[in-house]
Amino acid sequence: MSKTDTIDGNVTYKSNHEFDLIREFDIDSLESINEAELQQVMETFDTEKNLNPEYNLIEETPLYIRHQFLRKVFFILVLQILTTFGFTALAYFIPQINDLFSQCPYISIGCGAVYCIMIIVCIIFPKTLENTICCIIFLATTTGLLSLLVASTCCFFDIKEIAIALAITVLVFISLMILSYQTKYDLTRWLGFTIVLSLVMVYFAIVLIFVPIKPLCLVFTIASTIATCIYVLVDMQLIMGGKRKYQFTVDQYMLATTTIYCDFISLFLNILRFFRF
Fold first, then answer.
1. What's the predicted TM-score (pTM) here?
2. Span 164-203, pLDDT tens digits
3. How far is CA 198 from CA 18, 95, 98, 202, 242, in A?
4. What are the extents of the domains in the chain?
5. pLDDT for 94-125, tens place per residue?
6. Which residues contact 191 (CB under 8 A, 6 or more apart)?
7. So which domain of life are we looking at (predicted)?
8. Which residues contact 145 (CB under 8 A, 6 or more apart)?
9. How far is the C-alpha of 57 from the C-alpha of 152, rounded, in Å?
10. Distance between CA atoms of 236 and 240, rounded to whole angstroms?
11. Nearest to 155 by CA among 89, 102, 90, 81
């Protein structure tokens, strides 16, 4: 704050921002500015937007910036989901593609393995995703891999089972989104725990490849579903921002979208697997 300055005894300026705004006007017009006009100018000035273009979604962030970020995230998310299930529909209803996926179950295993490796690399080298081009490549690759994974997996299920699993997934996903928004507890403090949990689930999945015992597979499916629900809660708070320990910045919308998209697909596949028990 600067010291109080008075111009013609009419207007008082108490902050550096106000003083800087007035200096932009022609000196001859200063006498004609009244307090109401100055207040109108100050209301159109967004300190964060004009002075710091990159900042977290903190509680003081203007609502239009928050809404802009959320619109980008959910718009891209919808496109990813439509792409995935559009490709899945083609693979399911075109006999040649369906036969290919049915006869080559290792396609889904390969896609899942590559996806897990990508996630582990991103956890070890998080700064890789700070580059916009790397983010776009990561988003496109993830969407392609998970689309192949979902399509090849769905070829082993009935259309009714797929529809029920998708409906349950959407219902649970929306419920978790609402819960993460309504709760006052900062779930982003669990971020370190979720990373460890992810590594444990990866090791568990590797064990099941060599020891495919049905009861053990059921335990893994239940544990994986619960873990995914935790991921959704944490990731949604990272996206929503507010007074939380960790959160995505407004320029990380592609990373935020990919994160929540992976949660959605993981939840769908876990629910779909229950039809095999």
1. 0.74
2. 999 999 999 999 999 988 877 788 887 788 888 888 888 8
3. 50, 36, 31, 6, 25
4. 5-47, 63-276
5. 988 888 888 887 888 888 888 878 877 877 77
6. 234, 238, 245, 246
7. Eukaryota
8. 111, 114, 115, 118
9. 38
10. 6
11. 102
